[in-house]
Amino acid sequence: MTRVAVVTGGASGLGLAICQHLAGADRRVAVLDLNGAAAKDTAQGLRAAGAQAMAVEVDVSDRASVDAAFDRVRAEFGPVQIVVTSAAISGFTPFEEITVDLWNRYLAVNLTGTFHCVQSAIEDMVAAGWGRVVTISSAAGQTGTARQGHYSATKGGVIALTKAVALEYAARGITANTIPPFAVDTPSLRGQQSSRNLPKTERIARMIPAGRIGTPDDIAATCAFLCSEAAGYITGQVIAANGGAIL
């Protein structure tokens, strides 16, 4: 059976790798991203590799935008059985400098955006009696991170939301799990390191028992498994692909 997968933040970084791992003969992949042009490029690349893919521009913080995006996916590909929420914003701000506007922006994108996308897909999954929800949270949501109080709070909320969805829908054939990356070699991480006084990639790698930082493929492979038939008895779990950084 062909499954329809929606990946938010799918145009770059982790989301791009997840789209590549999910694409295949038995899946149609919808690449959703705020950057519509980049989403089109990603979808075109997937199609060139033989996959069925489409692109939709979306602002996950805007419920009307999310609902319209999912309606487009249904119209072209059919009901959604897999949703991966990778769209997020991150950054470093000392706690006393976090404004209410900044706080609300992080909530709107990272936590409310996840809620919007999962809720927009869940009815399709209930109707099918099968579904996979994978949220991309963060190690910051498990432990907290200095100068990331706003980001940490939203990602902790994503973890709790995922567990709540898992409990509510487990008996209906729907699983919900979250992946909390620690440090992953993405353009976002390298950009933060170059613009701020943050530890370099090599120094971070020495903090990880595996001796290296993660790659997008490390996270994407874990995500692809959680979206598979084989992972049907795994739900409500925090699956950390982090090289042993947090145990």
Keyphrases for this structure?
alpha/beta; Rossmann fold; 9 helices; 6 strands; KR_dom; oxidoreductase; oxidoreductase activity; NAD(P)-bd_dom_sf; SDR
Structural account:
This protein is α/β, with parallel strands linked by helices. The protein has one domain (3-183, 215-231): 3-Layer(aba) Sandwich (Rossmann fold), CATH 3.40.50. It is built from nine helices and six strands; from the N terminus they run E-H-E-H-E-H-E-H-E-H-H-E-H-H-H. It has helices spanning 13-22, 36-48, 63-77, 100-128, 140-143, 149-169, 187-195, 201-206, 216-226, and strands at 3-8, 27-33, 52-57, 82-85, 131-136, 174-179. Strands 3-2-1-4-5-6 form a six-stranded parallel sheet, sandwiched between helices. Helix 1 packs across helix 9 (216-226), helix 3 packs parallel to helix 4 (100-128) and helix 4 (100-128) packs parallel to helix 6. It is globular, with a radius of gyration of 17 Å. The relative contact order is 0.14. The model has no long low-confidence stretch (mean pLDDT 95).
Low-confidence stretches are none
The count of helical stretches stands at 9
The name of the CATH superfamily reads NAD(P)-binding Rossmann-like Domain
Sketch the major β-sheet.
6 strands, parallel
CATH topology title = Rossmann fold
Count the beta strands.
Answer: 6
The structure class reads alpha/beta
Q: Give the helix level as a range of percent.
A: 40-55%
What is the average of the pLDDT values? Answer: 95
Shape: globular
Distance between the termini: 37 Å
What's the domain count? 1
Strand content: 5-15%
CATH architecture: 3-Layer(aba) Sandwich
Family: Belongs to the short-chain dehydrogenases/reductases (SDR) family.
Keywords: Oxidoreductase
Pfam families: adh_short_C2
Protein name: SDR family oxidoreductase
